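#struct-pred
JK: can someone run the complex with glutamic acid? inputs below
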Amino acid sequence: MSTKAYLQSVMDGVKKKDPAEQLFHQAVEEVLITLEPILDAQPKYMQNAIVERMVEPERVITFRVPWTDDKGQIHINRGYRVQFNSAIGPYKGGLRFHETVALSTLKFLGFEQTFKNSLTGLPMGGGKGGSDFDTRGKSEAEVMRYCQAFMTELYRHIGENTDVPAGDLGLGGREIGYLFGQYKKITNRYVGVLTGKGLEFGGSLIRTEATGYGVVYFAEEMMKLRGDSLKGKTCIISGAGNVGIHTAEKLLELGAKVVGMSDYSGAVYDEEGLTTEKIAYLKDLIFNKRGLLTEYVKKYTGAKHLPGKKSWSIPCYAAFPTSRENELDGNDAKELLKNGCKLVCEGANMPCSPEAITAFQQAKILYAPGKAANAGGVACSGLEMTQNSIRLSWTREEVDAHLHKIMQHIHSSCVNAYKEFGTDGDYLLGANIAGFKKVADAMLAQGIV
Ligand code: GLU
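RT: done, structure tokens with the ligand placed:
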């Protein structure tokens, strides 16, 4: 059987086993289509069924989460933890709280996480979890009770050397605090079992900023390799959450001009560009007041609000999707390209649809997949685990220097892999192959387990 046919048969097998899990299929396909050259070069991976093993999670846990709202009404939600791959370290990856969460979502995220974590160079396996619960519209007390109910089951499956969850969409520092408190209460152990913790109880400086900063460090490396930089370039961002805002902040620091952001109210086009003052306002609006971008245009009247729109119609040199999966489709890609976009760097997980990726590749613009470009978040989680283990806290400068180095290392791993196995500038292939190799070699060494 040719390698191509073999990869197709693995893909068919995945679809046959779980026909409804489309997001998972998409994530697997995005990897499998790039693995042919390394499988050809190293027959041992096919002989040992490494790819078949990698697409099957090691363990999937689902559980009932019963809780009571403020009126005394009982609700039942579903909790999950997908422990995808532990070849190179304890399972590591976030928890997502969102009404759309289903097993397919978490399998796609857990699969991606395995490659992403491998790319960081830190000893972390891949996992993901969460629940079909939305914190929006819930009271503070309801959110706390939900986190406690969720942890009352999750605690038996995790541990600082087993599986270390963190945040993801809909689950931030507030929820991590409640989850940590409940874990400690049940187990009577004070350990680094979660990352993204508050600074007072074992959190790391820069963890909040890390994903966004890392995305920009990665984009800057792509530019640097081509004798250019982000300085003076017009940029747009989708999303206005933790990743989006810190992407904007670092872009500004490097001298780029950020003219667009978005949230679920629509997009904001601020032709004059964000400033440090505007970013400080956004941080307060979004993180403290949990407000929407509609407020931004009331304060900064030069900016336009585009209701219900995403940022992709705003002309730019570089685009940073930081919101969620498939938020940038084939038509959005065409619009970006028509307006002169030359670089797309993913801050979210799988935000570009397969059609969008193909369009970027055909247009030969720079495209960085999330598993490489947004790895700064989990990398900083790895640094939090290190600090917890040695019972020390590093300074901002120390953590940021580590983060910067890790992003440079990820960039050069992608470049080395595409030089050896693909074509110049193919960061998707580079990231997949570099991430795959380390996990595959560890699995080979550990035998059939
Ligand atoms: N949820 C983030 C990600 O997609 C962070 C995971 C973590 O810090 O463990 O990488």
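RT: quick notes.
DSSP finds 18 helices and twelve strands in the chain.
The mean pLDDT is 98.
JK: thanks, will look after standup
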